[in-house]
Amino acid sequence: MFRSFGLVGLARLRLGRGDRAGAQQLFAQVETELKKLHANGENSPFVFDVLIETEAYLGHREEVEQLAQEIVERMRSDLWESPHQEEVIARAYFVLGDLDRAFPMLEHVLSVPYVFALTPAMLRADPDWDPIRNDPRFQKLCEDKPK
Prior knowledge:
The protein is mostly helical.
């Protein structure tokens, strides 16, 4: 499992350097490993977080939808589940280019206090969001007090 987390980090670095083919190869390795874990009953939030991100970067919309549904169901049944999981789903939709689904989720996550909560300052500082910095919806979320 931890090997997969490291590979995702390397894949994201390759994306940042413009090496999409190299990143896709690493994401494919991660997908294989984490799908095996998931099929064998490993359902930790860490596995879900990395697997949904991986599926999004691979462009696997159906898998993202299925994982998002599983995460939402788990959030409904587990009162200890944090809104962070909703942020993870929003990031996956963002990667897939489905901004109309990502923005309402981000708005909700920003409105809910929890440990390690997403904040407007974190949005402003996170380079993952660079492609949509000029979107008025994103700029609104980055205000100190979203309206």
